Amino acid sequence: MEATLSLRDxxxxxxxxxATLQTGRIAFLSLNPGRAPSSSALRDVSDxxxxxxxxxxxxTRSPITDQALRAFSFFGAQPDEVLTGVVCxxxxxxxKDLTKEKRDHALELGRQFWVQPLQRPGLELIVCCSxxxxxxxxxxxxxxxxASASAGWGNIxxxxxxxxxxxxxxxxxxxxxxxxxxxxxxxxxxxxxxx
Length: 195
Known about the structure:
This protein has 195 residues and is of the alpha/beta class. The protein has a single domain (20-194), classed as Uracil-DNA Glycosylase, subunit E. The protein is 29% helix and 19% strand. The protein contains 6 helices and 6 strands, in the order H-E-H-H-E-H-E-H-E-E-E-H. It has helices at 20-23, 52-55, 64-74, 100-114, 131-141, 184-194, and strands at 26-30, 82-86, 125-129, 144-153, 156-162, 168-172. It has a 6-stranded mixed sheet, with helices on both faces. Strand 5 (156-162) and strand 6 (168-172) form a beta hairpin. It is globular, with a radius of gyration of 16 Å.
């Protein structure tokens, strides 16, 4: 698919060990990988070194790294305990760099990969980072909207959905642009949606 879509910057689905597909009680999914740090493998299905956000925290240039690590702590999990990944596996400098056709194909590949792990028993919470990732996961799992709260950034909101299996989905804005974790106002909103 990488060659078919002319996407040659690499890919990764799971930002941690493959085993977290079966063991993670929390899933954390963002949109797609950006440019790889120089020390990062470009073409991996999973990252067997550990959670990528933790392993690459000193080499990545994205502000999502700190926010993801804070989010894991906020939700009461160590990085290696979280099923971490992306709904579109292909690396791009920006989501806008992909045509609609390429986005649709890449998200279909993501759907085929993620639907089963996101419906397995033992998964307690799904956290989506970005409107696009949230829309994809909510659609794939036919989840229903339950509540919304202000993120504390103008009119930006955080939403809670629930899957047919009863698993809550917390839909966050993209953490590269909106730093929620470490901001009391935003964390209070997230806690309220979890209760």
